[in-house]
Predict the structure.
Amino acid sequence: MPSLDLTPGSAAAPSPRSPIPFVRSSRWADLAFSAAIRTCAFSLFAIVLLLVAVLFANASLSLHSFGWSFLSRSSWDPVARSFGSLPFLFGTLLSSLLALLIAVPVSLGVAVFVLDICPAPFRTFVAYLTELLAAIPSIVYGLWGLFVLVPLMRRFAGPALVRAFGWTDLFREPNFGMSLLTASFILAIMIVPIIASVSRDLMRAVPGDQREAVLALGATRWEALRLGVLRNARLGILGTVLLGLGRALGETMAVTMVIGNHPEISANLLAPSYTLASVLANEFAEAIGHLYLSSLVEIGLILLLISVLVNGLARALVWAATRRGDGLQRRAS
Amino acid sequence: MVPSVPEPGSTPDTQAPDIQVERLNAWYGSAHTLRDVTLHIPARQATALIGPSGCGKSTFVRCLNRMHETGAGTRVEGSVRLGGLDIYAAAQAADIRRRVGMVFQRPNPFPTMSVYDNVASGLRLNGVRRKRLLDEVVEHSLRQAALWDEVKDSLRTRSGANLSLGQQQRLCIARALAVEPEVLLLDEPASALDPISTSKIEDLIYELKTRYTIVLVTHNMQQAARVAERTGFFLDGALVEFDETKRIFTNPRDRLTEDYITGRFG
């Protein structure tokens, strides 16, 4: 740091010196920088387009052989060269939706707890813990699921569910522990941190005077939270839930390790199932024959399209919520 | 019990009570923001509270409906009697807040609700479900807040945030009036508004004080002089002087009050 000259008069009478020799930098540097930035930005579009193009090209055999029926056929028989993606679609969608069903109430509970109920000294700690969960590699979740969750499901949770709800046909023997429900639990645990931390931020962004307005009308604490905070953040929270869904749909490793990998459509949630991502991970390396490989690539294509759809929807919702949030801010200023 | 809805212009069944405050002290964490305030707020009149920023006048009104205690690390001591009822010792905070309505400095309508739902929100919170009753109260409250004519054609289609700032504030007043409070606390209700909206709010206060006990916090001394029967001057968390408005502005007893109203500080 240059030392400051604090002697009186130094500011009033600067010592005379020659003009500063400014040097204009070359405009080539500017152009080069701009070109480099543009290349980076456009490469993103190129990557997406290439990805779709390569998937389409490599799936063309399967697309021609099965057409739309690939989505509705449920046989997956490499020997008979008969392929259909319905069981995988079913497993992917159902396991992810069940995961949401479990994760959303828990996430909102965690978010509200951190925001409102948790004593201040523990707040950062709980928030940190939630974010830590998001950073754990999915293979670790898979291992934990295999060694802890699967035995728990086999010995305790499964039999209890069969006893209590066996009459609904949703929970029936045989119960091996590896099942659609187990995968949903793992997925739920994996997406709770995302939904919880983003929705907490959304709730925190709601101006405090909204909650005060509700309180001043004679509301209880819970009513003030529901009307003054949750209601104002609901669009954004819905977007966050869809982002969580996007993550669940594409999650591969942990699901593959606990879902049982059996392509069959069953109403029994304790039965093994299979997902789009899992079948890719398991069979791609061993796929023999053009049609088999092509069918697997088409499954990848389907997974990509579903993810794009869900994420697009989520982005649109979050965008709409932020715009309305701007309205709130404008009102505030 | 179904609350009765008075015809526009009539007085409600309940008589608005006075407020007796004794040795009220309030803290934000370790900051002692209100020191030994004792005063009597008469029923069905407007009482103005003036003073420089941070003098404790807002904290004071927030103690009158137990909103102060919703902040983290806050504390209140002393007694506030609403027509004889000790609101801290003998009542539930939520009940008090329904009886003592509040309008905030910044208009805060609910942006996700229509104009109608904004006004009806307090009734719904307090268990009113009958549609006819809701319709009646919503209209009556909006008329009382002088907003009805401007919104009657878009009650259910317009969002609460989709109004001008002045309209938003009158919507907040309608929302507060809908739950039939007895006291109305106005915490600098016009400080965010333009002059025309401000004068509308002042007219409104003038009208409402025949039916409600009104406490008005304001930065604007002319405003206090125009609408309030009594005025209190706060400084550094203490009530310096409390008297008839005319007296405060023409012949104050205290030197500090005089300095403040003549613009020597604040």
About this structure: Chain B touches chain A at residues 65, 67, 70, 72, 94-95, 97-99, 101-102, 104, 106-112, 121-122, 125-126, 161, 165, 168, 172, 175-176, 179 (CB under 8 Å). Confidence is low (pLDDT under 50) at residues 1-13 of chain B. Residues 150 and 167 of chain B are 9 Å apart (CA to CA).
